[in-house]
Amino acid sequence: MTFYNRAWQLMMPLLLSACAVGPDYVPPTQSAADHYTAPQETRESASNIALGKPMDAEWWTIFSSVALNNLIQHAVGDNYDLKAARETLSQAEAAVDAQQGSLMPQMSLNALAGRQKYGVALFGPSNFVIPPFTYYEVGPSLSWTPDIFGGGKHQIERQQALAAYQKHELDALYVELTGNVVSQAIQLAAVKSELVTVQGLVESDEKNLDMIQSAVLVGAATQSDILNAQASLAQDRQLIPPLKQQSSLNLHMLSVLLGKAPADWSLTTLRFEELTLPPLLPVALPTTLVHGRPDILAAESGLQAASASLGVAMANQYPALTLTANMLQEALTPSNLFLGAGNAWALLGGISMPLFDGGTLAAEKQEAIHGYQASLAEYRQTVVHAFSQVADALTALANDEDTLKITTLMLQIAQSSLDLTRQSQNAGNSSRLEVETAHRSLIQAQFKCEEAQLQRYLDVVRLFVALGGSPLVANTSQHSKL
Fold first, then answer.
1. Using 50, 70 and 90 to split pLDDT, how confident is the model at 16?
2. Pairing of strands 49-51, 281-283
3. How far apart are CA 114 and CA 131, in angstroms?
4. What are the tens digits of pLDDT across the range 338-390?
């Protein structure tokens, strides 16, 4: 048996087995918990939470605001970060196509023209001389590297996982964008409403001061009463500049989210008192959250990419086979190309196996193993952090519910007190100053109630963002605008 026959017998099992090495990706185990908050906490969430109820794709519509819906529509269409993320996803998908193409046979067309002169010594003592000549070659070349040990398959898997990672990053950015738009718009509407309330409070303070100054003239009040009234007026006036600044900040941030410079955009009217919430807020179960929240899915895609990288590192430790075929047309003049006498071909097969590399391949495998373990830890931390964010939002809503009940009761008491004081004034038992004081208390209670309602709305947004918002695959009307 010749050397070539023996070599072929050794190579045939290698080619036919196609035994891919490396791990097959297995998704990590998920938490089996059916709640978010700690066992020692007295209650899971506010009374208006529907645990396990599916979320609407356009979750912001729960506020029943057409102006808010329009803001989201413009933001999704014009935000530059979202456009950049979409292009990054397309880039990653193109990289997958490129990697898949590398497993296919590669064909190219080669053309060559050259001039050659052989030395006299080439032909020995015969002193045979070949004069310089020009030669031409043209023809296709075909090469193929079979993916025997699965290195190419794992490279494709890695690129697909990286593309999935970019898809989930796009989803995460979409969730963040919609959450920020809703939060900024609600804050802006609330600040405008609070400004009106505070201005009413200042007007009430000014009336109180005028009446106290008049009372001093007739001896019914003292200079100390004037100072107290002036202090109240100054204290309430100082609330206005921060509210105006906050209004400007919200307006500017909204313009950026909508892809506009502040000078190029104006807000559609959004009234805080028109915002409402449904009786029940849908909240996904923990087992559903891990399959829907974009950052968790992105972390899992990163884990799969790390697993594929380990497969590539393991495959690199095994032999690689390369097959090459060339077909040429050769001639000494261009006119003689493509004639039968110029036909030439070559078939080549080569195999390379690492024998000694100074420990490089083994170190690369260890690097991939540690990379996988790091990605697994990052994935689990992402899941834990997501559960914590949902738990924070749920407990915040429970506390918001209590706060809103208290501030609403305070508002009702202040309104009743004002009504009784006015009745007493009509009966001649209370002064105008007492009525204005009661009115001021009502405005203060209204301000506190608005703050409590704002915090509740913001925590609702925070909850839906923590739950992963609305996936782009479900929200096709918005996704088509990216």
1. very low
2. parallel
3. 14
4. 887 778 888 998 999 998 989 999 999 999 999 999 999 999 999 999 999 99
Q: What is the pTM of this model?
A: 0.85
In tens, the pLDDT along 203-217 reads 988 988 998 898 888
For residue 102, give the nearest of 159, 164, 141, 58 by alpha carbon: 159
Q: Is it the case that residue 1 has pLDDT exceeding 70?
A: no
> Is residue 323 helix, strand or coil?
strand
Which amino acid, residue 132?
Answer: P
- Per-residue pLDDT at 32: 64
* Lookup: tokens for 19: 């035994």
Q: 83-117: b or e for each residue (b if 16 or more CB lie within 10 Å)?
A: eebbebbeebbebbeebeeebeeeeeeeeeeeeee
Angstrom distance (rounded) from CA 198 to CA 239: 7
The SS3 call for residue 25 is coil
Distance CA 49, CA 130 (A): 95
Q: Of the candidates 449, 462, 480, 337, which has an alpha carbon nearest to the alpha carbon of residue 390?
A: 462
Other beta carbons within 10 Å of 15: 12
Place of tokens 């500017």: 252
Instruction: Compute the mean pLDDT over every residue in the chain, rounded to the nearest whole number.
Output: 87
Whole-angstrom Cα distance, residue 224 to residue 422? 26
Q: What is the rounded CA–CA span in Å between residue 180 and residue 79?
A: 12
Helices (H), 22-118: 66-78, 80-101
Give the pair of three-digit tokens for residue 344. 């030439």
Domains located in the chain, CATH noted = 20-103+148-193+240-317+360-479 (1.20.1600.10), 104-146+319-352 (2.20.200.10)
**What's at 15, amino acid-wise?**
L
**Using an 8 Å Cβ cutoff, are 462 and 388 in contact?**
no
